[in-house]
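User: What would this chain look like folded?
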Amino acid sequence: MFRYGGATVRDGVEHFGPYAVIDFETTGLSPRRDRVVEVAIARVDANGRIEDEFATLVNPVRDVGPTFIHGITNAQVKNAPVFAEVAPELLARMSGAVVVAHNATFEEAFLAAELKRAGIDVVPVPALCTLWLGRQTFATPNYKLGTLARAGGVPLVDKHAALGDVRAVSRLLPQMTDRLSSPMRYSVKTPTWPPTNPARPLPVVTRAVALRKGTDGWMHTLVSRLPGTGLAPDDAAAEAYLDALAEVLSDGRLTGEEADALAHLAGSAGMGGAQVIGLNERFLDGLKAAALEDDLLTAAEIRQLRTAAKALSLPDYYGDLQPTAPTPAPQPAHASVTAEGGAGTDNSMEARGERASRALTMQRSGSSRAEIASSLGVGVETVKALLRDAKFSENPESDPSRLSLARDARQARDSGVTRDVFQSDLRLTSGKATEAWRDAAMLAGRL
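Assistant: Here's the prediction, encoded as structure tokens.
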């Protein structure tokens, strides 16, 4: 299938880009018996800049083989597309390009075998093998990809992941071609294939492996290990990720185990780095909205917000926030404790309670969160918080940890402790402290 280029190809044509760098992870070494379990391909220009990349796990319709090598489990590929579904994505990115791979004969054999199984005609394609090219251009003890990457100063941090190999080869390619004394020529022209239909995206399954905290944090490496773009998550996948994010950041920090859990949620939904960043920003916007529910923003709240943003590798997200000065309000004749714990009317607490109760009634009647948000004139994130409040108010024992925190807040309020001090003492996020303070007022007669 591949027609390999070289400096001595007679009557060949030169090629100045683009290139299609590919890599497969497989169930074994035999193209006849084994199958592809992961694919990655990047559309790369002559300078090694990645213009587009695509990666997904592939359901081999059999056992995945040596998980201890490629790290892929049967459970991970259960909902992944089969190769026949992936093939149009690969061919569209190979269109008009020279195909590049390290030890390209391996990729060639599996690609040809999988295309034949899918009933797709195999045609000659100009190709370049960086294992061969490395021998012409590098003086290294061997020409494994890892060895060449170290010699070229190229990071190869996620070995045995198709996307990691593709990115390393893409960065090595211009170093190698620049060292050639004669230009590469190819005996066949680049074939063309039709583009895929963007209106019907393939349900991919991505993965982020070899996560490291490093100097930039766990979230930075999670995002960087995923393909640049992926599927926009559906409502259920987005809510699952946001719920998990709220849980793992309840203490204001992100651990490696928690990052792995978030990576699994993102990958199973087919998300890329851009989609994860979008959800992280949506989460931070929700935290900010919660902090501003009382129209006040304290220095302690800003510190908590910035701690969360830093954990999500968005340290400048709240860079423009400044503490607000409270506006004195006249005290009514009959004062009561508000959700914030100071003296004032209980209208705000009552209004929120009524909204929460109405939201829960609508949900139980079959209304979606979007419909509830439209009816109440609030955002979807606020609806989510209202529903949690209503369910908790109805049955506080259903959430023991939240109930315990509400009791701590009630005790703090009764002792004259301010919310900011309570938040700081327990090292809570702004949103968590606000919720506990509000719960203490809502359940005043039951705590």
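The two ends are 73 Å apart (CA to CA). If you want, I can go into more detail on any region.
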